[in-house]
Amino acid sequence: MRTLSLKFPSDGGYARRTGYAVLLLGLITLSGTLYQFKAAMDEAAYWDLRIANMDTEVGETGATGGTGGTGTAEALAPSVSSVLGGRELKREVKPEVKKANAVMSELDLPWEALFNSVEHAASEDVALLSFQPNAVGRTMRIGGEAKNIPAMLDFVGALEREPALEDAYLLKYEIKRDDPQGSVIFSLTASWI
Questions:
Q1: What are the domain boundaries of the chain?
Q2: How far apart (Å, rounded) are the C-alpha atoms in residues 44 and 37?
Q3: Beta strand pairing status for 87-88 and 83-84?
Q4: Distance separating alpha carbons of residues 22 and 14, to the nearest angstrom
Q5: Has residue 144 got a pLDDT over 70?
Q6: Banded pLDDT at 64 (limits 50, 70, 90)
Q7: What does the DSSP assignment read for the chain?
Q8: Cα atoms in the 13 Å half-sphere on the side-chain side of 18
Q9: Kind of pairing between the strands at 139-146 and 165-175
Q10: Domain 111-192, second-level architecture
Q11: CA diameter of the chain
């Protein structure tokens, strides 16, 4: 029988060099990760401070009666240009506050009552194709298709009778010439209370 000859590294130099290389690679990765973490924390602290300054400014103006207690975008806009801690707020803050106030005023609208009113007024003879609310003007445009003109007029009348809506009227309508049943495509507008 033959003898088996195995060669073991005598000093383990190759394995040791590989271990050091992996350790060095791990340390480089760790330092890069820690650097990114510190940069993210610095940015978060910057934005926290900026938000706290804006909150303080709005609070001080509200406490002195500067907004009149209305809370609207128009009422809060003058408070942005006032002085905070001896220095004027940057010009880029004004549009941010106006946008935030506009979003807040849109969120305060009675969306559920509006959608429920439109759903309640719709019938099987009317299909709604588009719905475009205008939160600032408290109006909406509805595009749809009805089986016939009486179904379209019934839908407009049903919208007018809804307690959350008023001033519902047709903007335009068109009878489909290629449809033998005479379906009608229409566009209407309504205001909500």
A1: 24-107, 111-192
A2: 11
A3: antiparallel
A4: 13
A5: yes
A6: low
A7: -PPP-----SS-HHHHHHHHHHHHHHHHHHHHHHHHHHHHHHHHHHHHHHHHHHHHHHHHHHHTTSSTT---HHHHHHHHTSEETTEEPPTTHHHHHHHHHHHHHHHTS-HHHHHHHHHHH--TTEEEEEEEEETTTTEEEEEEEESSHHHHHHHHHHHHHSTTEEEEEEEEEEE-TT-TT--EEEEEEEEE-
A8: 4
A9: unpaired
A10: 2-Layer Sandwich (3.30)
A11: 106
Higher pLDDT, 74 or 158: 158
Residue with tokens 């309640």: 120
Tokens of 124: 């099987």
pTM score > 0.85 for this model? no
Cβ of 175: how many Cβ atoms within 10 Å? 13
Q: Which of 8, 122, 107, 100 is nearest to 54 (CA)?
A: 100
Q: Are 188 and 156 in contact (CB under 8 A)?
A: yes
Distance (Å, rounded) from C-alpha 93 to C-alpha 68? 21
Q: How far is CA 126 from CA 21, 69, 111, in A?
A: 73, 44, 22
Cβ neighbours, 10 Å, residue 99: 11
Question: Contact, 40 vs 54, CB < 8 A?
Answer: no
